[in-house]
Design brief:
Number of strands: 5
Number of helices: 1
Shape: globular
Radius of gyration: 12 Å
Structural class: mainly beta
Strand content: 25-35%
Length: about 70
Amino acid sequence: MSKCENNTINRPIVNDMVLMTCRYCLLYELGYCRRVNPLKKEPRYLRLRNGTLIRLHFDCHRCEMQLLK
């Protein structure tokens, strides 16, 4: 079960608008958790069906993933 929250109180990262902050992490689900395997390959993106790119930011110390526009 994922725990997501609307990001109205969290700080923005590098002038990008934070769309959502989640405790559900795609890196963890794919077996690339940086707490176990510290690879630094950012930025990563999700491509929506309409072609929009959503940038992903991983805060592994807090075990959170942010979706940025």
